[in-house]
Design goal:
It is built from 15 helices and 21 strands. The protein is α+β, with helices and mostly antiparallel strands. The chain has three domains: 187 residues, FAD/NAD(P)-binding domain; 157 residues, no CATH class; 73 residues. The strands form five sheets. It has a seven-stranded mixed beta sheet. A six-stranded mixed beta sheet has the order 7-2-1-11-20-19. Helix 9 runs antiparallel to helix 10. The two termini are 46 Å apart.
Length: 500
Protein backbone atom coordinates (compact mmCIF):
# COMPACT_ATOMS: atom_id res chain seq x y z
CA UNK A 1 0.00 0.00 0.00
CA UNK A 2 1.29 3.45 -0.90
CA UNK A 3 2.62 5.57 1.97
CA UNK A 4 0.33 8.63 2.10
CA UNK A 5 2.21 10.40 4.85
CA UNK A 6 3.38 13.97 4.20
CA UNK A 7 7.03 14.06 3.19
CA UNK A 8 8.66 16.69 5.40
CA UNK A 9 12.14 17.91 4.47
CA UNK A 10 14.00 19.94 7.12
CA UNK A 11 16.73 22.17 5.72
CA UNK A 12 19.57 22.69 8.20
CA UNK A 13 20.60 21.00 11.42
CA UNK A 14 21.59 22.74 14.63
CA UNK A 15 19.10 23.57 17.35
CA UNK A 16 16.16 24.66 15.18
CA UNK A 17 16.46 21.86 12.64
CA UNK A 18 16.80 19.02 15.09
CA UNK A 19 14.11 20.41 17.41
CA UNK A 20 11.72 20.44 14.45
CA UNK A 21 12.74 16.99 13.24
CA UNK A 22 12.53 15.46 16.72
CA UNK A 23 9.09 16.90 17.42
CA UNK A 24 7.62 15.87 14.07
CA UNK A 25 8.96 12.33 14.03
CA UNK A 26 8.08 11.74 17.70
CA UNK A 27 4.62 13.32 17.80
CA UNK A 28 3.32 12.86 14.23
CA UNK A 29 4.86 9.55 13.06
CA UNK A 30 1.52 8.50 11.55
CA UNK A 31 1.20 11.73 9.56
CA UNK A 32 4.66 12.38 8.15
CA UNK A 33 8.10 11.15 7.27
CA UNK A 34 11.02 13.39 8.19
CA UNK A 35 14.28 13.88 6.30
CA UNK A 36 16.82 16.43 7.49
CA UNK A 37 19.56 17.79 5.24
CA UNK A 38 22.64 19.34 6.81
CA UNK A 39 26.20 20.01 5.75
CA UNK A 40 29.25 19.74 7.98
CA UNK A 41 30.73 22.61 5.94
CA UNK A 42 28.13 25.04 7.30
CA UNK A 43 28.81 26.14 10.85
CA UNK A 44 26.30 26.51 13.67
CA UNK A 45 25.86 29.90 15.34
CA UNK A 46 25.94 28.12 18.72
CA UNK A 47 25.54 31.19 20.93
CA UNK A 48 21.99 30.72 22.22
CA UNK A 49 22.91 28.90 25.40
CA UNK A 50 20.24 30.35 27.71
CA UNK A 51 16.59 29.32 27.56
CA UNK A 52 13.16 29.93 29.06
CA UNK A 53 11.07 27.42 31.10
CA UNK A 54 9.05 26.44 28.03
CA UNK A 55 11.94 24.25 26.83
CA UNK A 56 11.46 21.94 29.80
CA UNK A 57 7.89 21.28 28.67
CA UNK A 58 9.16 20.56 25.15
CA UNK A 59 11.68 18.00 26.40
CA UNK A 60 9.08 16.34 28.61
CA UNK A 61 6.64 16.14 25.72
CA UNK A 62 9.22 14.32 23.64
CA UNK A 63 9.93 11.96 26.54
CA UNK A 64 13.57 12.97 26.93
CA UNK A 65 15.26 12.31 30.25
CA UNK A 66 16.20 15.58 31.97
CA UNK A 67 19.37 14.33 33.67
CA UNK A 68 20.65 12.69 30.48
CA UNK A 69 19.95 15.87 28.51
CA UNK A 70 21.81 17.97 31.08
CA UNK A 71 24.82 15.66 31.14
CA UNK A 72 25.01 15.61 27.35
CA UNK A 73 24.82 19.40 27.01
CA UNK A 74 26.75 20.36 30.20
CA UNK A 75 23.61 22.18 31.31
CA UNK A 76 22.91 24.14 34.47
CA UNK A 77 19.64 25.37 35.96
CA UNK A 78 18.37 28.90 35.43
CA UNK A 79 15.92 30.75 37.68
CA UNK A 80 15.89 34.02 35.77
CA UNK A 81 17.92 36.78 34.14
CA UNK A 82 19.81 39.31 36.23
CA UNK A 83 20.12 42.80 34.75
CA UNK A 84 22.89 45.11 35.89
CA UNK A 85 23.26 48.82 35.14
CA UNK A 86 20.24 48.98 32.83
CA UNK A 87 18.11 51.54 34.65
CA UNK A 88 21.17 53.51 35.73
CA UNK A 89 24.74 52.50 36.61
CA UNK A 90 24.72 50.52 39.84
CA UNK A 91 21.20 49.12 39.43
CA UNK A 92 20.65 45.38 39.74
CA UNK A 93 17.50 43.27 39.52
CA UNK A 94 16.45 39.75 38.56
CA UNK A 95 13.68 39.05 36.05
CA UNK A 96 12.53 35.76 37.63
CA UNK A 97 10.60 32.79 36.35
CA UNK A 98 7.87 33.32 38.89
CA UNK A 99 5.45 35.77 40.48
CA UNK A 100 5.90 38.37 43.22
CA UNK A 101 3.92 37.87 46.42
CA UNK A 102 0.32 36.70 46.51
CA UNK A 103 -2.92 38.49 45.61
CA UNK A 104 -4.92 39.64 48.62
CA UNK A 105 -8.68 39.87 48.34
CA UNK A 106 -8.48 39.52 44.56
CA UNK A 107 -6.23 42.57 44.23
CA UNK A 108 -2.78 42.07 42.66
CA UNK A 109 0.07 42.02 45.16
CA UNK A 110 1.90 44.90 43.44
CA UNK A 111 -0.69 47.42 44.62
CA UNK A 112 -0.25 46.52 48.29
CA UNK A 113 3.50 46.82 47.93
CA UNK A 114 3.15 50.20 46.22
CA UNK A 115 1.14 51.52 49.13
CA UNK A 116 3.82 50.46 51.61
CA UNK A 117 6.56 51.91 49.42
CA UNK A 118 4.85 55.29 49.58
CA UNK A 119 5.49 55.19 53.34
CA UNK A 120 9.06 53.91 53.00
CA UNK A 121 8.10 50.38 54.07
CA UNK A 122 7.69 46.99 52.40
CA UNK A 123 11.32 46.33 51.48
CA UNK A 124 12.41 45.34 48.00
CA UNK A 125 9.81 43.93 45.64
CA UNK A 126 12.32 41.25 44.69
CA UNK A 127 12.29 39.81 48.23
CA UNK A 128 8.77 38.57 47.46
CA UNK A 129 9.87 36.30 44.59
CA UNK A 130 10.99 32.75 45.44
CA UNK A 131 13.17 32.53 42.33
CA UNK A 132 14.80 35.86 43.21
CA UNK A 133 15.71 34.84 46.74
CA UNK A 134 16.89 31.39 45.69
CA UNK A 135 19.02 32.74 42.83
CA UNK A 136 20.62 35.36 45.07
CA UNK A 137 21.63 32.57 47.47
CA UNK A 138 23.10 30.41 44.67
CA UNK A 139 20.67 27.62 45.52
CA UNK A 140 18.35 25.44 43.46
CA UNK A 141 15.56 22.92 43.90
CA UNK A 142 12.74 21.88 41.61
CA UNK A 143 9.42 23.56 42.47
CA UNK A 144 7.38 21.83 45.18
CA UNK A 145 4.37 19.86 43.96
CA UNK A 146 2.18 21.21 46.80
CA UNK A 147 0.65 24.49 45.57
CA UNK A 148 0.36 25.66 49.19
CA UNK A 149 4.15 25.60 49.58
CA UNK A 150 6.02 28.89 49.05
CA UNK A 151 8.55 26.82 47.06
CA UNK A 152 5.97 26.04 44.37
CA UNK A 153 5.56 29.55 42.92
CA UNK A 154 8.29 29.53 40.28
CA UNK A 155 9.62 27.69 37.24
CA UNK A 156 13.08 27.05 35.86
CA UNK A 157 14.95 26.82 32.59
CA UNK A 158 18.36 25.61 31.41
CA UNK A 159 21.69 27.04 30.35
CA UNK A 160 23.54 24.68 28.02
CA UNK A 161 26.18 24.27 25.35
CA UNK A 162 24.24 24.90 22.13
CA UNK A 163 26.80 23.00 20.04
CA UNK A 164 25.91 19.87 22.05
CA UNK A 165 22.14 20.30 22.04
CA UNK A 166 21.67 19.70 18.30
CA UNK A 167 23.62 16.42 18.27
CA UNK A 168 21.69 15.22 21.36
CA UNK A 169 18.39 15.83 19.57
CA UNK A 170 19.79 14.35 16.35
CA UNK A 171 20.52 11.03 18.03
CA UNK A 172 17.02 11.02 19.49
CA UNK A 173 15.29 11.96 16.22
CA UNK A 174 17.20 9.41 14.15
CA UNK A 175 16.35 6.79 16.75
CA UNK A 176 12.68 7.71 16.31
CA UNK A 177 12.83 7.27 12.53
CA UNK A 178 14.05 10.54 11.07
CA UNK A 179 16.49 10.32 8.15
CA UNK A 180 19.63 12.45 8.11
CA UNK A 181 21.23 13.36 4.78
CA UNK A 182 24.67 14.94 4.64
CA UNK A 183 25.09 17.37 1.77
CA UNK A 184 25.14 20.95 0.59
CA UNK A 185 22.11 22.26 -1.30
CA UNK A 186 23.08 23.73 -4.68
CA UNK A 187 19.69 24.03 -6.35
CA UNK A 188 15.97 24.32 -5.66
CA UNK A 189 13.26 23.11 -8.03
CA UNK A 190 9.79 24.68 -7.97
CA UNK A 191 6.46 23.64 -9.43
CA UNK A 192 5.92 25.76 -12.56
CA UNK A 193 2.26 26.52 -11.74
CA UNK A 194 1.96 26.74 -7.94
CA UNK A 195 5.46 28.04 -7.22
CA UNK A 196 5.78 25.51 -4.40
CA UNK A 197 9.16 23.97 -3.71
CA UNK A 198 9.25 20.55 -5.36
CA UNK A 199 12.76 19.26 -4.70
CA UNK A 200 16.21 20.19 -3.47
CA UNK A 201 19.32 19.39 -5.49
CA UNK A 202 22.46 18.46 -3.56
CA UNK A 203 26.06 19.03 -4.55
CA UNK A 204 26.47 15.34 -5.42
CA UNK A 205 23.53 15.54 -7.84
CA UNK A 206 20.97 13.83 -5.64
CA UNK A 207 17.38 15.15 -5.62
CA UNK A 208 15.35 15.28 -2.44
CA UNK A 209 11.62 15.62 -3.07
CA UNK A 210 9.13 16.71 -0.44
CA UNK A 211 5.61 17.93 0.24
CA UNK A 212 6.45 20.32 3.05
CA UNK A 213 9.80 22.04 3.61
CA UNK A 214 10.93 23.41 6.99
CA UNK A 215 13.58 26.09 6.52
CA UNK A 216 16.06 25.99 9.42
CA UNK A 217 18.94 27.40 7.41
CA UNK A 218 19.69 30.20 9.87
CA UNK A 219 20.25 33.81 8.90
CA UNK A 220 20.64 32.78 5.26
CA UNK A 221 16.95 31.79 5.08
CA UNK A 222 17.68 29.72 1.99
CA UNK A 223 14.14 28.76 1.03
CA UNK A 224 11.89 31.43 2.53
CA UNK A 225 14.23 34.39 1.96
CA UNK A 226 16.40 33.55 -1.03
CA UNK A 227 14.13 31.30 -3.11
CA UNK A 228 10.65 32.58 -2.25
CA UNK A 229 11.78 36.17 -1.65
CA UNK A 230 9.63 36.81 1.41
CA UNK A 231 9.92 40.44 2.47
CA UNK A 232 11.81 41.41 5.61
CA UNK A 233 10.33 43.76 8.21
CA UNK A 234 13.26 45.71 9.64
CA UNK A 235 13.15 46.69 13.33
CA UNK A 236 16.67 48.09 13.63
CA UNK A 237 15.29 51.58 14.27
CA UNK A 238 13.87 50.22 17.54
CA UNK A 239 16.59 47.66 18.30
CA UNK A 240 19.83 49.03 16.83
CA UNK A 241 22.23 46.37 18.12
CA UNK A 242 23.40 44.47 15.04
CA UNK A 243 26.57 42.68 16.16
CA UNK A 244 27.74 40.37 18.91
CA UNK A 245 31.20 39.20 19.83
CA UNK A 246 31.17 35.85 21.66
CA UNK A 247 33.86 34.41 23.91
CA UNK A 248 33.90 31.33 26.20
CA UNK A 249 36.07 31.36 29.31
CA UNK A 250 37.02 29.10 32.17
CA UNK A 251 34.61 28.83 35.09
CA UNK A 252 35.64 30.64 38.26
CA UNK A 253 35.89 28.61 41.44
CA UNK A 254 32.91 28.42 43.75
CA UNK A 255 29.18 27.99 43.29
CA UNK A 256 27.59 28.01 39.83
CA UNK A 257 25.09 30.85 39.62
CA UNK A 258 21.59 29.60 38.66
CA UNK A 259 20.96 32.60 36.45
CA UNK A 260 21.94 34.34 33.23
CA UNK A 261 23.37 37.84 33.58
CA UNK A 262 23.02 40.82 31.25
CA UNK A 263 25.19 43.85 32.06
CA UNK A 264 24.75 47.16 30.27
CA UNK A 265 27.82 48.38 28.38
CA UNK A 266 28.58 51.75 26.73
CA UNK A 267 27.40 50.54 23.29
CA UNK A 268 25.00 47.72 24.21
CA UNK A 269 25.17 44.95 26.80
CA UNK A 270 27.05 41.75 27.55
CA UNK A 271 25.85 38.32 28.60
CA UNK A 272 27.28 35.84 31.07
CA UNK A 273 25.94 32.26 30.99
CA UNK A 274 27.48 29.78 33.46
CA UNK A 275 27.63 26.17 32.27
CA UNK A 276 29.02 23.19 34.15
CA UNK A 277 32.55 23.45 32.79
CA UNK A 278 32.84 26.89 31.23
CA UNK A 279 31.14 30.29 31.02
CA UNK A 280 29.64 31.71 27.85
CA UNK A 281 30.20 35.45 27.35
CA UNK A 282 29.29 37.93 24.68
CA UNK A 283 28.92 41.63 23.94
CA UNK A 284 25.83 42.64 21.92
CA UNK A 285 26.43 46.07 20.42
CA UNK A 286 25.58 48.61 17.75
CA UNK A 287 28.16 48.80 14.97
CA UNK A 288 27.19 52.46 14.55
CA UNK A 289 28.59 53.10 18.03
CA UNK A 290 31.44 50.59 18.37
CA UNK A 291 33.95 48.82 16.13
CA UNK A 292 34.37 45.03 16.10
CA UNK A 293 37.94 45.30 17.39
CA UNK A 294 36.90 47.53 20.28
CA UNK A 295 34.06 45.14 21.15
CA UNK A 296 36.51 42.23 21.20
CA UNK A 297 38.84 44.14 23.50
CA UNK A 298 35.92 45.04 25.78
CA UNK A 299 34.72 41.46 26.22
CA UNK A 300 38.25 40.20 26.82
CA UNK A 301 38.62 42.77 29.58
CA UNK A 302 35.25 41.90 31.14
CA UNK A 303 35.33 38.10 31.47
CA UNK A 304 36.07 36.59 34.88
CA UNK A 305 38.05 33.56 33.69
CA UNK A 306 40.83 32.66 31.27
CA UNK A 307 39.57 32.87 27.64
CA UNK A 308 39.12 29.51 25.88
CA UNK A 309 39.00 30.91 22.34
CA UNK A 310 39.40 34.11 20.39
CA UNK A 311 36.43 36.51 20.27
CA UNK A 312 34.06 35.62 17.41
CA UNK A 313 31.99 38.31 15.68
CA UNK A 314 28.38 37.59 14.66
CA UNK A 315 26.36 39.91 12.44
CA UNK A 316 22.56 40.14 12.48
CA UNK A 317 19.65 42.52 12.17
CA UNK A 318 16.50 42.79 14.23
CA UNK A 319 13.21 41.99 12.53
CA UNK A 320 11.22 39.20 10.95
CA UNK A 321 9.92 37.96 7.63
CA UNK A 322 6.49 39.36 6.89
CA UNK A 323 5.31 35.77 6.46
CA UNK A 324 7.00 32.79 8.09
CA UNK A 325 4.93 30.28 6.10
CA UNK A 326 4.80 30.86 2.36
CA UNK A 327 3.73 28.30 -0.25
CA UNK A 328 4.85 24.95 1.20
CA UNK A 329 7.81 26.39 3.13
CA UNK A 330 7.79 27.10 6.86
CA UNK A 331 10.71 29.01 8.35
CA UNK A 332 11.73 28.18 11.91
CA UNK A 333 14.25 30.08 14.02
CA UNK A 334 16.71 32.51 12.45
CA UNK A 335 15.35 31.81 8.96
CA UNK A 336 12.11 33.44 10.15
CA UNK A 337 13.45 36.36 12.16
CA UNK A 338 15.82 37.52 14.85
CA UNK A 339 15.52 39.38 18.12
CA UNK A 340 18.64 40.00 20.16
CA UNK A 341 19.14 37.50 23.03
CA UNK A 342 18.46 40.02 25.82
CA UNK A 343 15.65 37.84 27.24
CA UNK A 344 16.80 34.43 25.93
CA UNK A 345 13.92 34.17 23.46
CA UNK A 346 15.60 32.60 20.41
CA UNK A 347 14.94 28.96 21.31
CA UNK A 348 11.47 29.87 22.58
CA UNK A 349 10.61 31.27 19.13
CA UNK A 350 11.83 28.02 17.55
CA UNK A 351 9.59 26.10 19.92
CA UNK A 352 6.62 28.39 19.28
CA UNK A 353 6.88 27.81 15.53
CA UNK A 354 7.14 24.04 16.01
CA UNK A 355 4.10 24.07 18.30
CA UNK A 356 2.06 25.90 15.69
CA UNK A 357 3.27 23.54 12.97
CA UNK A 358 2.15 20.53 15.00
CA UNK A 359 -1.27 22.07 15.63
CA UNK A 360 -1.77 23.20 12.03
CA UNK A 361 -0.03 20.31 10.28
CA UNK A 362 -1.34 20.02 6.70
CA UNK A 363 -4.02 17.45 5.94
CA UNK A 364 -4.05 16.41 2.26
CA UNK A 365 -1.94 19.38 1.20
CA UNK A 366 -1.25 22.90 2.41
CA UNK A 367 -4.37 24.91 3.21
CA UNK A 368 -4.31 28.71 3.01
CA UNK A 369 -6.33 28.98 6.23
CA UNK A 370 -3.72 27.00 8.16
CA UNK A 371 -0.96 29.09 6.63
CA UNK A 372 -2.66 32.37 7.58
CA UNK A 373 -3.31 31.16 11.13
CA UNK A 374 0.34 30.13 11.52
CA UNK A 375 1.62 33.49 10.30
CA UNK A 376 -0.74 35.41 12.59
CA UNK A 377 0.44 33.46 15.64
CA UNK A 378 4.13 33.86 14.84
CA UNK A 379 3.73 37.58 14.14
CA UNK A 380 1.98 37.95 17.50
CA UNK A 381 4.87 36.24 19.28
CA UNK A 382 7.52 38.38 17.60
CA UNK A 383 5.63 41.63 18.14
CA UNK A 384 5.12 41.05 21.88
CA UNK A 385 8.74 40.09 22.44
CA UNK A 386 9.90 43.08 20.39
CA UNK A 387 8.00 45.47 22.66
CA UNK A 388 9.38 43.82 25.79
CA UNK A 389 12.97 44.12 24.55
CA UNK A 390 12.51 47.77 23.58
CA UNK A 391 11.25 48.41 27.12
CA UNK A 392 14.69 47.60 28.58
CA UNK A 393 16.25 50.40 26.55
CA UNK A 394 13.43 52.92 26.72
CA UNK A 395 13.04 52.61 30.51
CA UNK A 396 16.71 53.37 31.11
CA UNK A 397 17.82 56.71 32.51
CA UNK A 398 21.43 56.24 31.40
CA UNK A 399 22.96 59.20 29.58
CA UNK A 400 26.64 58.30 29.85
CA UNK A 401 27.19 57.33 26.20
CA UNK A 402 25.88 58.15 22.74
CA UNK A 403 24.33 54.69 22.46
CA UNK A 404 22.14 55.03 25.55
CA UNK A 405 21.15 58.57 24.70
CA UNK A 406 20.16 57.45 21.21
CA UNK A 407 18.09 54.40 22.25
CA UNK A 408 16.27 56.38 24.93
CA UNK A 409 15.33 59.05 22.40
CA UNK A 410 13.97 56.63 19.80
CA UNK A 411 10.18 56.68 19.28
CA UNK A 412 8.56 53.45 20.51
CA UNK A 413 5.71 51.36 19.01
CA UNK A 414 2.22 52.53 19.91
CA UNK A 415 1.54 49.14 21.48
CA UNK A 416 4.36 49.70 23.98
CA UNK A 417 3.48 53.35 24.61
CA UNK A 418 -0.05 52.32 25.63
CA UNK A 419 1.26 49.73 28.10
CA UNK A 420 3.65 52.20 29.68
CA UNK A 421 1.03 54.94 30.03
CA UNK A 422 -1.37 52.54 31.77
CA UNK A 423 1.29 51.34 34.19
CA UNK A 424 2.66 54.77 35.03
CA UNK A 425 -0.82 56.09 35.78
CA UNK A 426 -2.07 53.43 38.19
CA UNK A 427 0.16 50.35 38.22
CA UNK A 428 -2.05 48.41 35.82
CA UNK A 429 -0.87 46.14 33.00
CA UNK A 430 -2.72 45.00 29.92
CA UNK A 431 -3.64 41.36 30.28
CA UNK A 432 -3.52 38.84 27.49
CA UNK A 433 -4.11 35.12 27.31
CA UNK A 434 -1.29 34.03 25.01
CA UNK A 435 2.19 34.94 23.97
CA UNK A 436 5.26 35.41 26.12
CA UNK A 437 6.02 37.60 29.16
CA UNK A 438 2.99 38.05 31.36
CA UNK A 439 2.49 40.56 34.20
CA UNK A 440 5.34 39.44 36.53
CA UNK A 441 7.87 39.88 33.73
CA UNK A 442 6.75 43.40 32.93
CA UNK A 443 6.66 44.29 36.63
CA UNK A 444 10.21 43.00 37.12
CA UNK A 445 11.68 45.18 34.38
CA UNK A 446 9.57 48.26 35.08
CA UNK A 447 10.16 48.31 38.83
CA UNK A 448 13.72 47.05 38.43
CA UNK A 449 14.53 50.02 36.20
CA UNK A 450 12.80 52.56 38.39
CA UNK A 451 9.46 53.05 36.59
CA UNK A 452 7.08 53.64 39.50
CA UNK A 453 3.31 54.16 39.11
CA UNK A 454 1.80 57.41 40.31
CA UNK A 455 -1.04 55.60 42.11
CA UNK A 456 -2.39 52.19 43.06
CA UNK A 457 -5.72 50.38 43.27
CA UNK A 458 -7.74 52.43 45.75
CA UNK A 459 -9.28 49.34 47.35
CA UNK A 460 -5.89 48.77 49.01
CA UNK A 461 -6.41 51.84 51.21
CA UNK A 462 -9.29 50.05 52.96
CA UNK A 463 -6.76 47.72 54.63
CA UNK A 464 -5.24 49.09 57.87
CA UNK A 465 -1.62 50.03 57.26
CA UNK A 466 -0.26 48.12 60.25
CA UNK A 467 -2.06 44.91 59.23
CA UNK A 468 -0.78 45.24 55.68
CA UNK A 469 2.78 45.82 56.84
CA UNK A 470 2.60 42.75 59.08
CA UNK A 471 1.23 40.57 56.28
CA UNK A 472 4.01 41.52 53.87
CA UNK A 473 6.63 40.84 56.50
CA UNK A 474 5.07 37.40 56.94
CA UNK A 475 5.29 36.80 53.17
CA UNK A 476 8.98 37.69 53.09
CA UNK A 477 9.72 35.34 55.96
CA UNK A 478 7.67 32.54 54.42
CA UNK A 479 10.01 32.68 51.40
CA UNK A 480 13.35 33.28 53.11
CA UNK A 481 13.08 30.46 55.66
CA UNK A 482 12.46 27.49 53.30
CA UNK A 483 15.01 28.78 50.77
CA UNK A 484 17.65 28.34 53.49
CA UNK A 485 16.96 24.58 53.41
CA UNK A 486 17.53 24.30 49.63
CA UNK A 487 20.89 22.88 48.43
CA UNK A 488 23.47 24.85 46.47
CA UNK A 489 23.21 24.78 42.70
CA UNK A 490 26.18 22.46 42.16
CA UNK A 491 24.89 20.04 44.80
CA UNK A 492 21.47 20.07 43.15
CA UNK A 493 23.03 19.12 39.81
CA UNK A 494 24.96 16.29 41.44
CA UNK A 495 21.87 15.07 43.27
CA UNK A 496 19.95 14.79 40.01
CA UNK A 497 22.81 12.98 38.31
CA UNK A 498 23.08 15.85 35.82
CA UNK A 499 26.81 16.55 36.06
CA UNK A 500 28.79 15.59 32.97
Amino acid sequence: MQDRRTRVVVVGGGTAGWMAAAALVRLLPHACTVQLIESAEIGIVGVGEATLPHLRAFLLRLGLDEAAFMRATHATFKLGIEFRDFGKPGDRYLHPFGAFGQPLGGIPFLHYWLRLQAEGEGGSLFDYGVANVMAAAGRFAAPASDPASPLSAYAYAYQFDATRFGPHLRDFAVGQGATRTEGRITGVERHPESGDVAALVLENGARVEGDLFVDCSGFRSLLLGEVLGEDWEDWSHWLPCDRAVALPCESPKGEIEPLTRATAMPSGWRWRIPLQQRVGNGYVYSSAHLSDDAAGDAILAAVDGAPLADPRVLRFRAGRRKRSWSHNVIAVGLASGFLEPLESTSIYLVQAAITQLLELFPIDGVDSGDRDAFNAEIDYEYDRIRDFLILHYHASTRDDSDFWRDVRAQPIPDSLAEKLALFRRAGRLQRYAKGLFFEPSWIAVLIGQGVMPAAWDQRVDAVPFAALDQELKRMRGAIAAPVETVPGHRAALAGLGALA
